[in-house]
Specification:
Largest interface: A-B, 28 and 20 residues
Shape of chain A: globular
Largest sheet of chain A: 9 strands, mixed
CATH topology of one domain in chain B: MetI-like fold
Order of helices and strands of chain A: EEEHEEHEHHHHEHEHEEHHHEEE
CATH class of one domain in chain B: Mainly Alpha
Distance between the termini of chain B: 8 Å
Strand content of chain A: 25-35%
Strand order of the largest sheet of chain A: 6-7-8-3-9-10-12-11-13
Strand order of the largest sheet of chain B: 1-2
Number of helices of chain B: 14
Helix content of chain B: over 70%
Structural class of chain B: mainly alpha
Number of domains of chain A: 2
CATH topology of the largest domain in chain A: Rossmann fold
Oligomer: heterodimer
Structural class of chain A: alpha/beta
Radius of gyration of chain B: 24 Å
Chain lengths: 326, 320
């Protein structure tokens, strides 16, 4: 498959008063055309920062991208000028966020905010832009789109607002849609609708999706390919079926085991013991070592590298041999 | 909207009645009586008693209030004892001088404080931000009488760039543009004093409001759309940051007419501020009550204008 975006050795650090936080620490991943790639991990593991780094939206200060490459269709986004990046944002790569309630500007109408994106990236007259905005609102399943276009965000429900966000993101037919926990703030029935919508849009437009989530149910439903992140590093990468069937990294197995299952009658849910390590005080070896049930001596001393175990299944764990991945 | 404004205007009536009762009661409590300030101290007791009788001052308070309130409603605000002129005429000849000065200061501080506040916020902790933080601290701490005198010493006495006081050159008969020029020349120093005082606070207010706004999710959304930073800040940010600032501006609207007592006094600006103070000292009851009633009405009107402006900038506020 053809690569659309490839991140190589990305390092995004935050410089705080207490020290340096390596939010994204040497992360490499790729997204193929027409594929949905999921990044999974606990809160604070660097998923969102990875996504924000792609569009260079890291607030600076305190954050800074310290190294690596983000190659999008042959161009390194990190080397582009601010203006060139702006022409990509919202146009070729667009993003939807976790919080639909606060992600729309409260003082402008829905139409105004969508039209703004259209006028910015496409050579359309105001009238054509309005028509296009109505059209895209209809596409994301908003009833009475020609009325809603004049509504303010506070007049819509959370699910509707997230649809508007998706409409805004899709209006310029992006090649890559980054969705940062798009359903976390919504209730379950609305979640399913939004996921259905994203899947349908992906099929219709062949847009690649980078989906960030901590919800394994969402992953199973949406993903072609999964990367599991822990403390700013990728610990495992595989196709979705492979990963669910055969998780290698103890962290991934832990995550899968802690998913509630409706047909199994259990008193208590499994939880991975311990806490995510503090970003200021990371263990010397494997970051997961203090919580790992299968830890060995070597894990304390030396950080494991990402290795290919079998075709397309990578893991960073000393339990497995396999060939080194450069 | 029309309905809302009508309702608010109607609601002002009982409030104004309440205020008029309060003002009347307070002046009843004040020591002395109008007659003693009106007539020659050497006048006979009989003459005074007669005058009292004429002015209904011997009647119960409620009856007196009825006479006063009816006259006010009829547009008869009485005669100032001190100026020997109708109260309305006295107020009219001074209040506009205050208004010109306050309006100029209001517009100038708005025009300066908003851009400075926005720049301070977008460049938080930069040199620019620090310089204006110090400036704001000076502006807030500096008493206007001291700053006014300092300016007079420097710019009027030492280098003679601006006149010491007044609103026009004494005896000037200039009209049209020449008059405007003369007034502006006299206005400069008091304007600087007044503006410094309000600028500092407004600037800090805009800054903190903007700092709050640029951390919001919708600012990130605007950036993710590919908008230029200027559009992000001045379209998406400022519109939101101005909402709380509008409240502050609204609260200063009535102040446009009340006059700046200290500054006007120092620069001998013929405004309503010192006139009101003087009316207190000379026990000019009718003038004082007139000024107070007028300011009360203007304050209510100012609040209404602020509320309407509020709704114009924030679509989440809608009137039922």
């Amino acid at each position: 498959m053809e690569k659309l975006l490839e991140i190589k050795n990305l390092k995004t650090y935050f410089y705080t008063d207490e020290g340096i936080v390596k939010a994204v620490d040497d992360v490499s991943l790729k997204i193929n055309k027409g594929e949905t790639m999921c990044i999974v991990g606990e809160s604070g593991c660097g998923k969102s920062i990875t996504a924000m780094s792609i569009l260079r939206l890291i607030p600076n200060p305190p954050g800074r991208i310290e190294g690596g490459e983000i190659v999008f269709e042959g161009r390194d986004l990190l080397k582009l000028s601010e203006e060139e990046v702006r022409s990509i944002r919202g146009n070729e790569i667009s993003m939807i966020f976790q919080e639909p309630m606060t992600s729309l500007n409260p003082v402008f109408t829905i139409g105004n905010q969508i039209i703004e994106a259209i006028m910015l990236h496409q050579n359309l007259s105001k009238k054509a832009a309005v028509e296009k905005a109505v059209e895209v609102l209809k596409l994301v399943g908003i009833p009475r789109a020609d009325e809603i276009i004049n509504a303010y965000p506070h007049e819509l429900s959370g699910g509707m607002r997230q649809r508007v966000m998706i409409a805004m993101a899709m209006v310029c037919n992006p090649k890559l849609l980054i969705a940062d926990e798009p359903t976390t703030a919504l209730d379950v029935t609305i979640q399913a609708q939004i996921l259905d919508l994203m899947r349908k849009l992906k099929e219709d437009t062949k847009t690649s999706i980078m989906l960030i989530t901590h919800d394994l149910g969402v992953v199973a439903e949406m993903a072609d390919y999964i990367s599991v992140m822990y403390s700013g590093k990728i610990v495992e990468e595989a196709k979705v079926l492979e990963l669910f069937k055969n998780p290698l990294h103890p962290y991934t197995s832990g995550l899968l085991a802690s998913k509630p299952q409706i047909h199994i009658d259990k008193e208590k849910l499994y939880a991975i013991p311990g806490q995510v390590p503090s970003s200021f005080d990371l263990p010397k070896g494997c970051y997961f070592y203090p919580r790992c049930e299968r830890a060995m001596d070597i894990c304390e001393q030396c950080a494991p590298k990402l290795k290919q175990i079998h075709d397309g299944h990578y893991v960073a764990c000393h339990l497995y041999g396999g060939e080194e991945n450069e | 909207m029309k309905q809302y404004i009508t309702r608010r205007l109607l609601e002002m009536i009982p409030v104004l009645i309440g205020i008029s009762i309060l003002i009347f009661a307070i002046f009843q409590l004040a020591p002395g009586d109008p007659v003693s300030t009106m007539v020659d101290p050497k006048a006979s007791a009989a003459a005074k008693a007669k005058l009292r009788e004429q002015m209904h001052l011997n009647e119960p308070m409620l009856v007196q209030y009825k006479y006063w309130a009816t006259d006010i409603l009829k547009g008869n605000w009485g005669e100032s004892f001190y100026f020997k002129q109708p109260v309305k005429k006295v107020i009219n000849s001074y209040i506009w001088n205050s208004f010109y000065l306050s309006l100029a200061s209001f517009l100038l501080s708005a025009a300066l404080s908003i851009p400075i506040g926005v720049l301070s916020a977008t460049r938080q902790y930069s040199k620019f931000d620090y310089i204006f933080t110090v400036f704001a601290l000076i502006g807030i701490s500096m008493p206007s009488f001291f700053f006014g005198l300092l300016l007079i010493k420097w710019f009027a006495v030492d280098i003679k760039l601006f006149p010491v006081s007044g609103m026009t050159v004494p005896g000037s008969t200039a009209t049209g543009f020449a008059l405007f020029q003369d007034v502006m020349h006299h206005m400069t120093l008091p304007l600087v004093v007044l503006t410094l005082g309000s600028l500092a606070g407004l600037m800090r207010y805009t800054r903190s409001s903007m700092l709050e706004v640029i951390r919001q999710d919708y600012i990130r959304t605007a950036r993710a759309k590919g908008l230029r930073e200027k559009v992000v800040i001045y379209k998406h940010g400022l519109r939101n940051a101005l909402i709380p600032v509008v409240t502050i501006f609204g609260m200063s609207l009535p102040g446009l007419f009340s006059g700046a007592i200290i500054t006007e006094q120092i620069f001998n600006w013929p405004g309503i501020g010192p006139i009101g103070l003087q009316a207190v000292n000379t026990r000019d009851y009718t003038l004082l009550m007139g000024i107070n009633m007028l300011l009360a009405a203007l304050t209510l009107l100012g609040n209404l204008i602020a509320d309407i402006t509020y709704a114009l900038v924030d679509p989440r506020i809608r009137f039922k």
